[in-house]
Amino acid sequence: MQIAPVVPGSISGVFRDLPDAVVAIELTTKSIVYENLAAQQFFQISHLIGRTAEALTQHLDHLDLIEDALGRLALSRDDSESQSVSFLANRQGLDEQMVDATISTYPGTSPDHPLAICRIKTSRLEPISRQDALLLPEVARVLLNATDDDAALADVARLAIPGLADLCSIFILEEDLTVRQVAVAHRDPTMEQLSRLIHSRFPPKVSGARGTIRTLLDGKPSIVNRIDEEFFAMAAPDERQRALLRRLKIKSYMAVPFLARGHVVGAMTLSSSRPNRYQPGDLALAEGLATITALAVDGYRQRRAAQHASSQLSRAQHELGQNEKLRAMGQMTSGISHDVNNSLSMILGLTEILMNRDADLNDVDGPRGAMQMIQKTAEDAVQTVRGLRQFYLPVEMDVSKRPVDLSEVVEQVARLTRPRWRDQALAKGITIRVESHLADVPLLLGQDSDLRQALTNLIFNSVDALPRGGVIAMHTRVLRESIVVEVADTGEGMTDEILRQCLDPYFTTKGNNGSGLGLPMVLTIVQRHGGTLAIESAVGQGTSVTLNLPIQQRATRSASASRGTTPEHQLKLLLIGFSSLESNQIGPALVGDGHAIVSAATGDEGARAFAENAFDAVLLDAEVRATDANSVGASIRRINPLAPIILVDNLQGEARSSISISPPIDAVVARPLTLRAVRRAINQVGLS
């Protein structure tokens, strides 16, 4: 169908030479009627004109965002209105790219053919080079396959050359607070020897806190793009050291700390002979490199601690014989090996994802998301190794327990195990689907890493029972004073004889591929949380494992309150504008979490309540009655600009604030409203 010539001549004059991609869309037909040169170059699609908005993205949920924005503009009578969206852009023959776009009405067009201008911020996109994109996966591979810790770190320093620096040095902050240089690499072997000479003659010291040591102590990255005598004076108090440093011909410098579990374990310095070498993109890449390296350094320390504990165990066995305590400790050590192997399996799977895709480092569904999952899995492995201490330390209160949302844990496990049940299965031509049916459940006082480990074991068992593919279903629900978690599969099932023995330590049907400690470890974790475990299975019909965990934290909260202490997570929350149905849905649940709740039916009541009382945070309904949400939010900001505001809105797709105040809304929750979404928002604004 031929598009009517409705494009004003002024559009080409205004947008033709802009560096950002610009397309004009006719609002009644949602057809593209104009594209500038930048749009042609970015989308690589010949003749966008005449196509609908579907040409911009291949993802239906992102297309919904664009069409929803166009629909809002079509209904608006305000020529100055605009909508902001983010979507994965479809680029013919090239990788998709996440972009930010502003869609606004174009004034002065015919009422019969209103136009919208979609301006995509392509001028500020900074795609990383293929060499940089492959750096993080290669570093992860080197560190995961390391047999010699220091040699692996030396390989990391060499990998940073020459892409990130001419000179790279790696320092470790030992547990006794001494600083050890473990690696140095330079593109010029002569300069590398000079750098080694400098560090051997003038080793870094914590006293004085200069240069690299300051980064170690502060835990903050630094960039210096202009190296002068003032920099040398700061970095080296000794004139002889400064003379040697000048010979390295450094013009730019960057230092990033290694942070693991909130502590600095080392640092990496990157130096270049080019002035003004380091920009924010370089820092983001270096911090990604530092994150992976820090996890490895921390893991190496935990491994050495486990080896030391194992050595102590061997001596104790030799001296004390085979008593019951040592048999239990031996079982626990084997269980730790089993669980750490599961964690390493997930880490390797996630690393394969990093190595097989060429994406933006900041893409939450790409390298950054995979790195976050690697970090979560590595932290769980650390907790598993720490469990060994329970066998040689006195029994004491488990201070590591904290309120846990079991439905949230189930979601995390489904994501963390995806490389095993989806990617590795697909590589074998098998399709396994994981379904989650999750209820809003009360918080449970527990150890989240242990619970994740237990559910991970169950998922892996289900995957092993599905050699031809199938479904794994995970359910959560509340049953009287307990939370029930069920993991069921449509796999091969078990015979009655295997079912009777499956919880016995060391019993396995997997031969050399199994340790026989997966289900016993799950049972141990469940019992540690005061719960019970039930298994139902039939040959050819699958297996169902049910965890029943009692809700114990209410008594704990009451006890702490009677002692005059404040529970760790107790907050005073103000709910404004919610219906009685939603207030009754989330209010009692938040009270059960230990929070104090005040509800206001209208915007006026909410503004008065906030003015008369102190609240930790506000949950605001975007459809609040009497006074609109913008006015209520602005009133709250005038009284306390730092008070977190969580907006609940009727949104589709990605949650974005529909009101405009300064400072802006802190978090947005999309309907349908769930307790888990509210808890996540409370975590997001830093109140957990």
Please write out the topology.
Elements: H1 9-15, E1 21-26, E2 31-35, H2 37-43, H3 60-75, E3 82-89, E4 97-105, E5 115-120, H4 130-144, H5 149-159, E6 167-173, E7 179-186, H6 189-201, H7 212-218, E8 222-224, H8 229-235, H9 239-246, E9 252-260, E10 263-272, H10 280-320, H11 324-355, H12 367-386, E11 402-404, H13 406-416, H14 418-427, E12 432-437, E13 444-446, H15 448-464, E14 470-479, E15 482-489, H16 496-501, H17 518-528, E16 532-538, E17 542-550, H18 553-562, E18 572-576, H19 580-592, E19 596-600, H20 603-612, E20 617-621, H21 629-639, E21 645-649, E22 667-670, H22 675-684
Catalytic activity: ATP + protein L-histidine = ADP + protein N-phospho-L-histidine
Domain Histidine kinase: 335-553
EC number: 2.7.13.3
Written description of the protein model:
This protein has 4 domains: 116 residues, PAS domain (Beta-Lactamase), CATH 3.30.450.20; 119 residues, GAF domain (Beta-Lactamase); 145 residues, Histidine kinase-like ATPase, C-terminal domain (Heat Shock Protein 90, 2-Layer Sandwich), CATH 3.30.565.10; 116 residues, Response regulator (Rossmann fold), CATH 3.40.50.2300. Helices cover 43% and strands 20% of the residues. It contains 22 helices and 22 strands. A 5-stranded antiparallel beta sheet has the order 2-1-5-4-3. A 5-stranded antiparallel beta sheet has the order 7-6-10-9-8, sandwiched between helices. Strand 18, helix 19 and strand 19 form a beta-alpha-beta unit.
